[in-house]
């Protein structure tokens, strides 16, 4: 490719490299909770049996979703090469936002019913095809949404500085239940596959609802060991899925 042609292509990419806000394009984001496995017998709405056969019940469960980033579909080889050569940065600071990235942290709990949707916000990305959404779970800052509801409850928890807090009881197959309490200040990200979401002049609006399967959050936990030995925040990230909803 001749130098002047390469330069023109780079300028074009820099102008439309995903950071441009396009009026009329609107992507609404929300999050809800659900079970991934069949429910267990009586024991409360937040009772589960994990993959190891340990019975557990949450009395409190909170997680901080720090950001949601919309990722375009894979580009052709020459486009990917040009983007790698482009000086346009794709790094983001904590809680920053852009037309393709919602950087407002939200503290999400299991206080409501499965299926209840928490609205996260609205993005105005450039038109195009998007194949993945990157969810990042990280410690809440003082601007996080949902902090007050986490504190104003029967089991209050200040989530500032925490990405996860869970408490409840664990029971072996035959034995007495014991309480557990675990908090994390870690980070964990997951790329959730989309069904080739397309935004265009013909389809300017869409909605994505992310689902967190809370009954997998304690996978790997046994009744005899502290849950902190397991990557609980990673379990939360891996539990995420998405569905498209009508505008």
Draw up the topology in text:
Blueprint (H helix, E strand, L loop, with lengths): L2 H13 L10 E9 L12 E3 L5 E18 L4 H9 L15 E2 L3 E4 L8 E6 L4 E10 L9 H5 L12 E8 L6 E7 L3 E12 L5 E9 L18 H7 L1 E6 L2
Protein architecture, described:
Strands 2, 3, 4, 5, 7, 8, 9 and 10 form an eight-stranded antiparallel sheet that branches. The protein has helices at 3-15, 77-85, 147-151, 232-238, and strands spanning 26-34, 47-49, 55-72, 101-102, 106-109, 118-123, 128-137, 164-171, 178-184, 188-199, 205-213, 240-245. It is 14% helix and 38% strand. The chain is built from four helices and twelve strands; from the N terminus they run H-E-E-E-H-E-E-E-E-H-E-E-E-E-H-E. The chain starts with a helix and ends with a strand. It has 247 residues and is mainly beta.
Total number of strands = 12
Low-confidence parts: 1-19, 76-94
The backbone outline, from C-alpha atoms, is: elongated
**What's the end-to-end separation, in Å?**
43 Å
Q: If you average the pLDDT, what whole number results?
A: 83
What radius of gyration results from the CA coordinates? 21 Å
How large is the count of helical segments?
Answer: 4
Largest sheet data: 8 strands, antiparallel
Coarse structural class: mainly beta
Strand content is 35-45%
| Order of secondary-structure elements | HEEEHEEEEHEEEEHE
Helix content: 10-25%
Task: Give descriptors for this structure.
mainly beta; 8-stranded antiparallel sheet; disordered N terminus
Structure, briefly:
This protein has 247 residues and is mainly β.
């Amino acid at each position: 490719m001749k130098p002047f042609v390469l330069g023109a292509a780079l300028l074009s990419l820099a102008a439309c490299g995903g950071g441009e806000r396009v009026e009329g394009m609107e992507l609404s984001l929300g999050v809800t909770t659900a079970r991934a496995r069949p429910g267990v017998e009586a024991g409360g709405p937040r009772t589960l049996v994990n993959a190891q056969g340990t019975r557990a019940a949450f009395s409190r469960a909170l997680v901080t979703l720090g950001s949601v980033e919309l990722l375009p579909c894979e580009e052709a080889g020459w486009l990917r090469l040009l983007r790698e050569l482009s000086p346009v940065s794709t790094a983001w600071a904590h809680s920053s936002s852009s037309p393709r990235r919602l950087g407002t942290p939200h503290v999400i709990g299991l206080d409501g019913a499965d299926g209840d949707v928490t609205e996260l916000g609205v993005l105005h990305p450039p038109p195009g095809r998007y194949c993945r959404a990157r969810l990042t779970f990280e410690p809440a800052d003082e601007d996080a949404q949902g902090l007050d509801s986490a504190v104003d409850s029967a089991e209050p928890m200040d989530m500032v500085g925490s990405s996860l807090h869970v408490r409840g009881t664990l029971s072996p197959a035959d034995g007495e239940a014991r309480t557990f309490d675990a908090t994390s200040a870690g980070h964990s990200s997951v790329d959730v596959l989309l069904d080739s979401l397309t935004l265009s002049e013909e389809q300017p609006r869409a909605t994505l609802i992310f689902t967190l399967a809370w009954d997998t959050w304690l996978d790997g936990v046994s009744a005899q060991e502290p849950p902190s030995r397991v990557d609980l925040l990673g379990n939360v990230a891996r539990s995420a899925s998405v569905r498209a909803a009508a505008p």
